[in-house]
Design goal:
The chain has 241 residues and is of the alpha/beta class. Helices cover 22% and strands 35% of the residues. The chain binds flavin-adenine dinucleotide (FAD). Flavin-adenine dinucleotide (FAD) binds next to strand 4, strand 5 and helix 1.
Length: 241
């Protein structure tokens, strides 16, 4: 049996809004120790809510190797955990349990990769992409993110700057409520998956990394596993609900 993940206090160092509904929070261990984790893992937070203590999981959005770590939280209407985290003031301390999870991309894995997310599902993929680039991965990587509108593309500037600096990386967005002047992709992420996956195949057997709400994750898994008959080892996923 694997050991229970460590529990420690973390202090909120800074926070910023990434989109109108997503807040990024940057934490540091209160005792100054580094937080070690693998790209793709998540942290559980013990939230002292008015109605009682509650635990909520958040993917680590930043790559390993830093003194701090980021999470990005979508504000869910009427959701007690996300509302609490959107109001948390810098300097506040929370109990964290982690890192946890097996949605991880080992540094030794340099297969071509299609990263697929909706909304804040892009956060563990941001960690994986930055970790891969920092460790010299050269095989092609495509990040496909589905959001409602242009303004919801969290980490867009950063991802596009990385793509401009690293020819092996490409970033694609699909909008479900794009305005009339949006000339890019539209609709569900799963409709764009086969084309992008096939583009990667000449570089080796690609792996797909999928993260977001259950409905999208299932739809994408169906496309890859059933329609395209990919083996299970090439399809990795994490669900938020
Ligand atoms: C492994 C794991 C990692 C997660 N990582 C993240 C993350 O990085 N960022 C994040 O915002 N959430 C993440 N979540 C979801 C998070 O744990 C909470 O469920 C979420 O913040 C809602 O909590 P709440 O108390 O505000 O609302 P609740 O009342 O507990 O939930 C209400 C409903 O909100 C919906 N919901 C949950 N997460 C989201 C979301 N991200 N976007 C839109 N709707 C959602 C679900 O349908 C849920 O049933 C993760 C969940 C898991 C299991």
């Amino acid at each position: 049996m694997s050991a229970a993940p460590p529990t420690f206090d973390v202090t909120l160092r800074s926070a910023r809004m990434l989109t109108p509904s997503v807040r990024e929070l940057t934490f540091q261990r209160a005792d100054g120790e580094p937080v070690t984790f693998d790209a793709g893992q998540w942290m559980s937070f013990v939230l002292p809510l008015a109605e009682g203590e509650a635990r909520r999981a958040y993917s680590i959005a930043s790559p390993p190797d830093g003194d701090t770590f980021d999470i990005a939280v979508t504000h869910v209407d009427g959701g007690p955990g996300s509302t609490y985290l959107h109001a948390l003031e810098p300097g506040a301390t929370l109990r964290a349990i982690g890192p946890q999870g097996f949605f991880t991309r080992p540094r030794s894995d340099d297969a071509p990769a299609l990263f697929i997310a909706t909304g804040t599902g892009v956060t563990p993929l941001r960690s994986m992409v930055r970790d891969a680039l920092a460790h010299g991965h050269v095989k092609p990587m495509i990040v496909l993110v589905g959001v409602r509108e242009e303004q919801d593309r969290l980490y867009r500037e950063e991802l596009e700057a990385l793509a401009a600096a690293h020819p092996q990386l490409r970033v694609e967005y699909t909008l479900s409520r794009g305005k009339d002047d949006w000339t890019g992709r539209r609709g569900y992420v799963q409709t764009h998956v086969p084309e992008l996956f096939r583009e990667l195949e000449p570089s080796g057997a690609p792996h797909a990394w999928i993260c977001g709400l259950e409905r999208m994750v299932s739809a994408v898994r169906n496309v890859l596993r059933k329609d395209m008959s990919l083996p299970r080892q090439q399809v990795h996923s994490e669900r938020y609900d």
